[in-house]
Design brief:
By secondary structure, the chain is of the alpha/beta class. The protein contains eleven helices and twelve strands. The strands form three sheets. It has a six-stranded mixed sheet, sandwiched between helices. A hairpin with a 2-residue loop joins strand 10 and strand 11. Helix 2 packs parallel to helix 6 and helix 3 packs across helix 4.
């Protein structure tokens, strides 16, 4: 893939004049990046381009020279300023063709009164040879294309639709494209330790010398991630990563709240469930933020009863 590019390399393109004007804030770039890194991929670069087919074409061509996988979001709507299909088709050197499957789906929605006739015609167009990726929550025909060793996945610009696609067929495609690319790692999550302190303390640990170490800040928490320095299968990194995990546990002690990927809220929730306990909060200055974080975890009603269930 990607004309010799590493198979885990990913380029993200976000499309939209309103993003470049500052009218709205991009949420899709972060969601796509998380989807990539959680599968072991590496986002090499992310860019935003206007709703212009030539700019989109140029961005896709440049991305195909650097990365194996290209993710593009936005510009798949029904209006004249939605030009991602045209830009991608130009980059692939292919014409646009109607997807009979998606045209039938749009006709069904029009017949049912959900859509207006004539507003969705272009949403069934795909670059020739592209594979339809069904959009469970929108009218845009999303698609995947492969050419000259590159792979591209096109998403709509609506964040909720991107999330649904990543949880469905688009996520399955990413699993396939990035399979086997993940570098072995151990992730140690800390609470109450500033990033600079975490780096200073880990720098003195000899168990981490042969590994690549990165730091990721999430509000009051910091992730220390130790990864295999090489993705070659010739070396077994399990012993080095186990030693790194033990050293980090020893160094940070009770400041470690998770070894793995669970968030702080998920750790709290799992602890409540294991103990058969519930929690209630009274908030003022936090404006309900604590309640929001806890209830964002699936199954919140099990541990967060709310006032109607309190004695």
């Amino acid at each position: 893939m990607g004309r010799g590019a590493p198979p885990d390399s990913v380029y993200i393109i976000i499309v939209g004049d309103e993003l470049l004007a500052g009218s709205i804030r991009d949420r899709n770039g972060a969601a796509l990046a998380v989807a990539v890194t959680s599968r072991g991929g590496r986002v090499v670069e992310m860019c935003a381009v206007p709703d212009d087919s030539e700019s989109i074409r140029s961005a896709v061509e440049a991305a195909s020279q650097r990365c194996a996988v290209i993710l593009i979001a936005g510009g798949l709507g029904p209006t004249s300023d939605d030009r991602t299909r045209e830009g991608v088709a130009a980059a692939l050197g292919r014409p646009l063709r109607e997807s009979p499957e998606w045209s039938r789906q749009l006709d069904e929605w029009i017949s049912a009164g959900y859509l207006t006739t004539g507003t969705t015609n272009k949403q069934s167009l795909l670059p020739e040879g592209a594979r339809l990726v069904r959009n469970p929550h929108g009218t845009a025909a999303c698609f995947a294309a492969e050419w000259d060793g590159s792979a591209l996945l096109a998403f709509p610009g609506v964040p909720a639709e991107v999330t649904a696609l990543l949880a469905g067929d688009a996520g399955t495609l990413l699993d396939e494209w990035l399979a086997g690319s993940a570098a072995p790692e151990c992730r140690v999550r800390l609470i109450g330790v500033p990033e600079s302190h975490a780096q200073a303390r880990t720098a003195a640990l000899p168990e981490l010398e042969s590994l690549e170490v990165a730091y990721y800040v999430h509000g009051a928490t910091v992730d220390v991630v130790a990864r295999a320095a090489s993705r070659s299968l010739a070396r077994d990194w399990s012993a080095a990563l186990a030693a790194a995990e033990s050293a980090l546990r020893r160094e940070f002690g009770d400041d470690v709240y998770e070894i793995g990927v669970r968030s702080l809220a998920e750790v709290v929730v799992d602890s409540l469930r294991a103990a058969g306990e519930t929690v209630s909060v009274a908030e003022s200055c936090t404006g309900g933020y604590l309640s929001q974080v806890l209830t964002a975890v699936p199954g919140a009603s099990e541990f967060f009863p709310g006032p109607e269930r309190l004695p």
